[in-house]
Amino acid sequence: MVPHGRNGRNGLGLRVFAATTTLLTGALLAGCGQQADSANELSNAAGEAMGASGDSVAGAADTSTSRTRTDDSTAGERTGRSPTESSTASSPSESRESTGRTPTSTEHPPPVSRCHTGSLDGSLKRGRPGAGQRYAELTVRNTGDSTCTLYGYPGLELLDGSGSPLPTDVSRTADPGPSALRLAPDETSSAQLHWGVVPTGTDPAGSSCEPVPAGVRVTPPDETDSFRLDWNLGRVCGGDVDVTAFR
C-alpha cells in the first residue's frame, strides 16, 4: 500500500545502517586486537632483550669473579702459600710474642784490642845450638782478663849488668812472616831468636864478643812500652840477632 512506502524505506535504511555499524565495529575491534597483539609482541621482545642483556652482564660479572679467583690462585702458587695462608701470616708483634724477644739486627762480637805490654809477660828458653850458632825461643803470655790480638815482630835490646844498652842489631826473618793471632787469657805465642858466637868483622881483633849481655828489653808489636827479661844465653857477637814474627 502506498501510505506505507515511506516506512518501508525507513526500515530498510535502518537495517543497512545497523549492518554497517556492526561491520565497522567488528573492523575496529579487529584492529584493536591486532594492535594489542603487536604491543604484546613488542613488550615480549623488549623483555627478552633485557633478559639477554642481564644475562650478558651477569656472565661478565661471573667471568670477572672467575678471573679474580684464578689470579688469587696463581698468586698462591707463585708464593708457595694459599691466599688464606698469606692473609694469616704472623705479624712482627706475633713473632715477638712467640720468641719472647724483639728481633734485632745481626749481632757482632765486640772488637778485640791489641795485646798491650801491660797485659803480657815473657820468658826465654835456650834452643839447640849449632856450629857457632845459638838459638832461643821468646814466649809471651796474655795475663789480662780478655782476649787480645798479637801481630808482628818483637823489638829487642841487649842490656849489660847495670841495665845500660849494648849494641844490638835486630834483623826480621821473612819466613815465617807475621799473622794475626788471638790470645785468650793465659794463652801464649812465641818467636824464634838466632845469633852467632863467632867474632865478626865488627868485633875488635881477638875479641871474644864481650861484654856478655845480662838482660834484654822486649817490646811487643806496635807498642812503645817494654818489659825486661834476664839473658842467660851467653855472648852475642856483633850484637846481631835474627828474629821471626810471633806465631
TrEMBL record:
InterPro entries given in the database record: DUF4232
DUF4232 domain sequence ranges: 115-246
Positions of the UniProt region annotated as Disordered: 43-131, 202-221
Chain intervals with Low complexity compositional bias: 49-67, 81-93
Protein name: DUF4232 domain-containing protein
